[in-house]
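Page 37, continued from 36.
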């Protein structure tokens, strides 16, 4: 599992993707790879998600593709069968976490309180999602909640953008940030993958600026 999280740390910003049409999976994957963020958290909110994961993993074998918004063990199994390398959830569902741990699939459940973090610890996890990051208190809250849990790292998602991501990335307890500003739905729908590539390159440049 640690290999996946090492990749998270190196990539720095995890694009959170909502795909409505499978035809967009390949050009989007190409834009992310060429833009310098070879990773996608494909949210399981749409009917296209499963096939999109399969397409991206087949077309770009070196790309780190996972599933987000996974709410059930059945969704987790479908995502894994499609090729997902990691699972992300908005909250901490004990059944989903236990299922992924048993299967040896890296899972990053959503946390928002000390109680959530302690639940994650009972499963042996040391990387958790913090969601929704900005509405829940942002970086100041993460720093406060991180203090007692010295071995835990956080992946904040929700309200993070090009204007505030630098501050998050500077904090050493943040493994990576989830963000969707470079893969907005209107850009995908318009087929403007050049713009997505441009925004992705800017995001990758921020990671390099902060983390080298």
């Amino acid at each position: 599992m640690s290999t996946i999280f090492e990749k998270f740390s190196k990539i720095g910003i995890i694009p959170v993707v909502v795909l409505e049409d499978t035809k967009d999976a390949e050009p989007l994957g190409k834009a992310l790879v060429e833009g310098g963020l070879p990773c996608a958290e494909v949210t399981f909110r749409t009917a296209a998600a499963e096939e999109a994961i399969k397409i991206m993993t087949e077309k770009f074998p070196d790309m780190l593709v996972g599933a987000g918004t996974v709410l059930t063990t059945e969704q987790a199994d479908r995502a894994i069968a499609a090729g997902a390398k990691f699972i992300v959830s908005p909250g901490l569902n004990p059944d989903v976490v236990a299922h992924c741990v048993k299967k040896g699939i890296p899972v990053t459940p959503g946390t928002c309180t000390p109680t959530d973090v302690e639940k994650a610890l009972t499963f042996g996890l040391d990387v958790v999602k913090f969601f929704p990051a900005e509405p829940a208190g942002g970086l100041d809250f993460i720093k406060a909640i991180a203090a007692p849990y010295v071995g835990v790292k956080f992946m904040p998602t929700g309200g993070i953008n090009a204007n505030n991501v630098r501050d998050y990335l500077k904090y050493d307890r943040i493994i990576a940030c989830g963000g969707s500003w470079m893969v907005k739905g209107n850009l995908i729908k318009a087929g403007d993958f050049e713009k997505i590539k441009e925004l992705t390159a800017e995001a990758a440049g921020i990671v390099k600026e902060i983390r080298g």
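The first strand starts at residue 13 and ends at 17. Flag for discussion at group meeting. The beta strands are 13-17, 39-43, 64-68, 87-88, 107-108, 110-111, 127-130, 153-156, 177-179.
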